[in-house]
Amino acid sequence: MNGRKPRRDSDVVLSKFGQKEFLFKFLVIGDIGVGKTALVRRYTEGKFTSNYKITIGADFAIKTFDWDPHTRISLQLWDVAGHERFGYMTRGYYKYAVAAALVFDISRVSTFQSIKKWLFDLREKVTLPDGANIPVVLLANKCDIPCPVVPTEQIAKFCKENNIGAWFVTSAKENTNIDVAMRYLVENVLKTKIDGGVRDSIRLRDKPTIREETTTCCRS
Hints:
The protein is of the alpha/beta class. The chain is 27% helix and 27% strand. The protein contains six helices and nine strands; from the N terminus they run ββαββαβααββαβαβ. It is globular. The N and C termini lie far apart (52 Å).
């Protein structure tokens, strides 16, 4: 019987000619129609189309790149269907994720109002091994649409109150700030690895946990 441990979906480190290779699973979550699939495809394939089909369940795409001369990273971006929110299935989709992008449509107030529920669902179900929250970034998507209805002051206030370290206005159509947002998440995940060593990935919460959180400043 093979005694080797099975390879996990995330937090994998390989050695190849002195170069470390990481495989990280990132979640992309938010209401239906906010542009999650378009963001993922723009980031991983460099393409945009307005004719995406509605995601059923969850889908994922992978992007691999050299972070520095000694580090190669593969990001597995999981696009979770908007109608799956707060349901039993999200626990399975969240498994082994080490970071998340929360997405709303800056032209639709209702999608911004839903973000708090998405964030609560995420933090209730998944955490780092030490009990800390996984890194999260908030994306105010579709900034190419004229006259956004969600004020930036309101977005910044929400981030500060809910301990979200950064937020960005994004557009899959115009390729605005997507790379910057993903880089922010990668930096924070790698910092976690450096501070705590390479771990066996995150764990899912067995039970909801309530804890006090300190606030940090956001940036756009």
